[in-house]
Design a protein that fits this description.
By secondary structure, the protein is mostly helical. The protein is built from 10 helices and no strands. The longest helix has 22 residues. It is globular, with a radius of gyration of 20 Å.
Length: 205
C-alpha cells in the first residue's frame, strides 16, 4: 500500500504558524495590539483572512500565541548549559535573573507595556496563560534536578516552581516602578542583584 502523499495537505505546519506569528509581531511592533487587524496580519503573512480565522478567532488569540512563543524562547535561551562543578541551583538562579533582563528588554514586551498594558492584566490577576504553564513545567523540571543533586532545598516541585515564578514575575513586570536610577543602591542592576540573593536563599537547602 503506497503512503498517502496528501495526508497532511492543508494542515498548518510549524513553519506556517511562525510565518503568521512573525507577521503579528511586525504589526504589533509597528502600531500596537489595538490597532493591529486580521487584514494587516494576513497581508504581511501572505495568506488570506479566512486562513487566519480557521486557526485563530481574533487578533488577541494571535498575540497570545506570539507571546507564548517569544517568552518561552527568552526563558530557554537564558538557561546556562550544564558545566562541571556548577550545581543546578546556580544554573536556575542565573537563568532566572538573565531571563528577566532579556524579557524586560524584549521589543514585544516593551511595546505592550508602553501601548497595550491591559493585555497583560488577565495573566497577573485572573488566570495563568500558556507561557506561564510552560514556564512552570520548565521550572519544576529544573528544580527536580536540583533536588536530585542536592543543590536545591527539597520541596514539592510544583509548589516551589509556582512560588519562584511569583517572585520573578513581579520583578519582570514591576521592576521599573521600584527603581531610582539616580541612586546607585536602587538601580535596576542593584535590584536584580537583590533578586539573585532572594532566589539563592530560598532555594539553598
Amino acid at each position: 500500500m503506497t503512503p498517502n502523499r496528501h495526508k497532511n495537505a492543508g494542515r498548518p505546519t510549524a513553519s506556517d504558524n511562525d510565518t503568521v506569528l512573525d507577521a503579528v509581531r511586525d504589526c504589533v511592533l509597528a502600531v500596537g495590539v489595538r490597532r493591529t487587524t486580521m487584514t494587516d496580519v494576513a497581508r504581511r503573512a501572505g495568506v488570506s483572512r479566512m486562513t487566519l480565522y480557521r486557526r485563530w478567532p481574533d487578533v488577541r488569540s494571535l498575540v497570545g500565541d506570539l507571546m507564548t512563543r517569544e517568552w518561552i524562547a527568552v526563558a530557554t535561551g537564558a538557561i546556562p548549559a550544564p558545566r562541571p562543578g556548577v550545581g543546578t541551583r546556580s544554573r536556575v538562579v542565573e537563568g532566572l535573573v538573565t531571563g528577566i533582563e532579556a524579557f524586560r528588554a524584549h521589543p514585544l514586551f516593551r511595546k505592550i507595556v508602553d501601548v497595550d498594558p491591559e493585555l497583560l492584566l488577565p495573566y497577573v490577576l485572573d488566570r495563568r496563560g500558556a507561557s506561564q504553564e510552560a514556564l512552570l513545567e520548565l521550572l519544576a523540571d529544573a528544580l527536580g534536578e536540583g533536588h536530585a543533586d542536592g543543590s536545591v532545598r527539597p520541596a514539592h516541585p510544583g509548589r516551589q516552581a509556582r512560588s519562584v515564578l511569583l517572585i520573578v514575575q513581579s520583578f519582570a513586570l514591576s521592576l521599573r516602578t521600584m527603581t531610582d536610577e539616580d541612586d546607585a543602591e536602587l538601580t535596576s542592576a542593584a535590584l536584580l542583584t537583590e533578586l539573585r540573593t532572594i532566589l539563592e536563599r530560598t532555594l539553598t537547602p
